[in-house]
Amino acid sequence: MRPRRRALLIALPGLVSLGACGTLAPASPAEGGDRAPPSLLAALAAGAPPAGGRLWRLDAAASRLRIVAFRGGSAARLGHHHLLEAGEAQGALWLPTQGLAGAQGELRTRLDALQLDDPRWRQEAGGEFNEKPLDAEAVAATKRNLLSPQGLNAAAHPEVRLQLVQLTGAAPWWAATVALTLAGRTHTHRVALAVAQDAQQLRLQGRLVLRHTDHGLAPFSILGGLLAVQDEVLLDADLHWR
User: Fold this and answer.
1) What CATH number does residue 47 fall under?
2) Mean pLDDT of the 144-173 span
């Protein structure tokens, strides 16, 4: 059995903020991962869009794709919760003329474009996110360790991809099955979406609970679990399409 990469999403102040140790080769579908659907963005780039229907493009400037990571362990209050946000993203969504069967969609964002723990986000979130500030040096160390070969290995797997597998429901409520590809492993998830649409704009809002272990990542802990990261993280999406 291959060891799972240990990804640290919180840490003891003054030690590390977001790091990793251990190794993990990318898992194939036969090793527990799922298969991603064909890439809509690649088809569009090749000049082969789906026939019929309507194509929507992501308005990245108006959209927000954020990951929330939570501290854990019996000494959790010595660590920090973290807010990570996609600094840039591209996406496309194709919807059939009638119904939702056969809908296709894809989002991509680069790991090296992730933005971490902006003080404005933490202040806006309030509560425990605004208890203890993080200085710029700690945030920079967090990002370096996250992207390192011992972490998410951004050099080998520079992108995170979220692809639509199935879409059901009726506006203003959709239910989506999505395939998330992270660190070389794909895993499918279910997410409920709130839908607002007019002739020129489409807004999708949803929250998805992810687990490190779904993607071959072992939640980090030190000192016998005294300080740890929770397995669950939250993906919070507010996506605007034109």
Assistant:
1) 2.40.128.110
2) 87
